[in-house]
Amino acid sequence: MEISHGYGSVRECEDIPFSFPPQHQEVQPGLEYIMQPLPVSQRKQCGKKLENKVAIITGGDSGIGRAVAYDFVKEGASVVIVYYNEECDAKETQEQIRQLGGNCLLIQGDLKDCFFAKKCVEKTLECFGKIDILVNNHAVQFIQHSILDISPEQLSLVFQNNIISFFYMIQAALPYMKEGGSIINTASVTAFQGNKELIDYSATKGAIVALTRSLALSLVEKGIRVNAVAPGPIWTPLIPASFSAEAVTTFGRKTSQVPMMRAGQPCEVSPCYVFLASEDASYMTGQVMHPNGGTIVA
After folding, report:
1. Tens-digit pLDDT profile for residues 99-150
2. Architecture in CATH for domain 54-231+267-289
3. In the beta sheet, which residues pair with residue 135?
4. Catalytic residue among 70, 201, 273, 283
5. Helices (H), 75-232
6. Is the model's pTM score more than 0.85?
7. What residue spans in the chain does CATH classification 3.40.50.720 cover?
8. Is 201 marked active-site?
């Protein structure tokens, strides 16, 4: 489809070509109006970016997950929030979503259980009839000053919760996701920089990056995109639950780690998820976004 636009025309993004006829221009940097076909430079406006989409958000009761849920609802999505046991936070998030005019289903349970992951998907389908977006966002972390202090119990818990449960959710949801679907995994700046006091946590976040890149390659022919977000220090309940009271007072303010010299807020991270979930990111898969206050990552 073409729209008249002065001397040329603008092709809408639904008409994306996969091949190009032979052509050459003698002068750099070239002229767009004589190209065949014309580059796609305008999307068809169809209302909100996530209109009529259904998203499952794990750890959506608070922190980054809550901010993602709010932004998704504002863009027209219905959301399913999966949480562990934070009942008060979950209810508050649900009530705020209702005030925004959105739909929110709460599901409480332990994602370390593969059968619970399947239950989340079943309840989503019962309530909304489909799954368009899966956001794997839940995590735990425990400060240890040495790898020798990481007990077998802690190691198992962190890996079961932070990465193996991502596999469970993907395996449960994927059979019901169609072309155009999006999977978004929450990684961390620690996957790229490491953290000497969060060795097991950082290892799981590195695994999430590898999972994201590999799964993206696996699903590209199905038209399902897989990306990740790797936040820096963000002010969420995980911080006071992990660090000492004294450490919290300087959280995010070490210039050697964060050039912007402050912690970020969940609302400064959540737009990344909207972008990756929407058609705005139609040419992105296997990628990682880095809302981290200016930290350079390899």
Report:
1. 999 999 999 999 999 999 999 999 999 999 999 999 999 999 999 999 999 9
2. 3-Layer(aba) Sandwich (3.40)
3. 57, 184
4. 201
5. 87-99, 114-128, 152-159, 165-173, 190-193, 199-219
6. yes
7. 54-231+267-289
8. yes
